[in-house]
Predict the 3D structure of the following.
Amino acid sequence: MLRPRKLGHVGIFVKDLERSKKFYAEVVGLKVSDELPGRAVFMRCGHDHHDTVLFQLPPEKLSRSQNDRVEIQQISYELDRLEDLRQKAAELKALGIEVIGPQQRGPGMDKTIDFPDPDGNTIQFYCDMDQMGWDDRSRPPEQWQRKPL
């Protein structure tokens, strides 16, 4: 069985995107890599494009009590290369698990496969995520591409 080499990133649904961005930046100490205004903030503590992604909770779920727990959007694990993603997708499909991908997604331009765990949480395997360089700058949004691989 192919195994991941590290935990990649965690996606978190948040009730107030701007409040959470401020908390993760000022309290946790993460840097913002990119933003999809009103939808998502990609943040990091190292050189990977992101290790934490904050997603605005959809409006239909905002009506819940403020004390209700918010879901994890995804848990992501890194593999070495695209061929590993293809192999893992084949292993999962052989087990009868529905797989989305491989596909390329931006920001971060990582190649991914996604599948549900037994409780419906999204598990993602990825490879080839953009790295942040000495200038702390991300790839411009016009270069972000989403495509099947």
Observations:
- The radius of gyration is 16 Å.
- The longest strand covers residues 6-14.
- The mean pLDDT is 86.
